[in-house]
């Protein structure tokens, strides 16, 4: 527990963590607000279970935020030369990695909760004028557990990638280029392949049944949740095992 407490302290005492988190919460509120108030995009807000779930799912659409924080939590150690001191205090590199992975997962959950407060405030505002009030059902419940679990796994993936690449600039650049350019290009040329790529699979975790049904004809359908969860878990497991294994034998 002491090691985990130390990793939490490292994460929360870095100003960049707070800045990026606030940006992420704001983006979650913005994207949810578009679904709640932009009538031309989604039609009138009627307070249905599916619409509330859709608003909550917008938090997961900003999963790149927790991935970046995961990268920073690992690469900052190497950028500032504190990794050696960390491994001197805790000789077991596996324990250090497991602590960082656990704290990364915890951050993903905290990010979801903070964003949920902003999104839920917007849902309440949007529902003020509704005669029948807001309807919370199974889809909302699914969004409330899928969101934090998906973000926790995304943060773990970020920590693992950071441990593999180590260089902070390289890790962030490669990750962002891959997310916003690499998978997008593959999706344009080989859509059937792209739907199995990590961040396309991650996005599939947050798509409600209504969103899946609303996909335009001719567009390649994202993976259904029953398939997306084990596939993304597989990606996270592979990167995590590789990161722990290499961390044990590479020079600091």
Structure, described:
The chain has 252 residues and is an all-alpha fold. The chain has one domain. 77% of the residues lie in helices and 0% in strands. It contains 13 helices and no strands. It has helices spanning 2-12, 15-37, 39-42, 49-57, 64-79, 83-89, 93-126, 138-165, 168-189, 191-194, 198-204, 209-213, 225-249. Helix 4 (49-57) packs parallel to helix 8. The longest helix has 34 residues, at 93-126. It is globular.
Secondary structure elements and their pairing?
Layout: H1 2-12, H2 15-37, H3 39-42, H4 49-57, H5 64-79, H6 83-89, H7 93-126, H8 138-165, H9 168-189, H10 191-194, H11 198-204, H12 209-213, H13 225-249
Based on the model shown, name its key terms.
0% strand, globular, mainly alpha, single chain, 252 residues, 77% helix
Helix percent band: over 70%
How many domains in all? Answer: 1
> What's the shape?
globular
- Number of β-strand runs: 0
**Proportion of residues in β-strands:** under 5%
- Helix-strand topology string: HHHHHHHHHHHHH
Quick one: biggest sheet?
none
The count of helical stretches stands at 13
Stretches where pLDDT is under 50 for at least 5 consecutive residues are none
Span from first to last CA? 24 Å
Q: Report the radius of gyration as a whole number of Å.
A: 19 Å
Would you tell me the overall average pLDDT?
87
Structural class estimated from helices and strands:
mainly alpha
């Amino acid at each position: 527990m002491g090691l985990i407490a130390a990793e939490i302290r490292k994460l929360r005492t870095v100003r960049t963590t707070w800045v990026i988190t606030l940006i992420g919460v704001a983006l979650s509120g913005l994207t949810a607000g578009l679904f709640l108030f932009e009538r031309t995009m989604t039609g009138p807000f009627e307070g249905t279970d599916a619409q509330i779930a859709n608003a909550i799912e917008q938090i997961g659409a900003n999963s790149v935020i927790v991935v970046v924080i995961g990268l920073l939590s690992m690469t900052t150690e190497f950028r500032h030369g504190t990794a050696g001191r960390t491994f001197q205090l805790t000789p077991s590199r596996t324990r250090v990695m497991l602590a960082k992975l656990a704290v990364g997962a915890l951050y993903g959950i905290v990010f979801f909760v903070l964003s949920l407060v902003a999104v839920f405030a917007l849902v309440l505002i949007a529902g003020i004028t509704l005669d029948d009030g807001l309807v919370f059902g199974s889809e909302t419940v699914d969004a409330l557990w899928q969101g934090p679990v998906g973000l926790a796994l995304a943060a773990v993936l970020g920590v693992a990638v950071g441990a593999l690449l180590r260089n902070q600039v390289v890790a962030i650049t490669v990750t962002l280029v891959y997310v916003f350019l690499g998978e997008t290009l593959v999706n344009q040329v080989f859509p059937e392949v792209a739907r199995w790529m990590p961040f396309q699979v991650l996005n599939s975790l947050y798509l409600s049944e209504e969103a899946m049904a609303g996909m335009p004809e001719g567009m390649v359908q994202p993976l259904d949740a029953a398939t997306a969860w084990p596939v993304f878990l597989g990606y996270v497991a592979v990167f995590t095992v590789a990161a722990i294994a290499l961390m044990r034998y590479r020079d600091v």
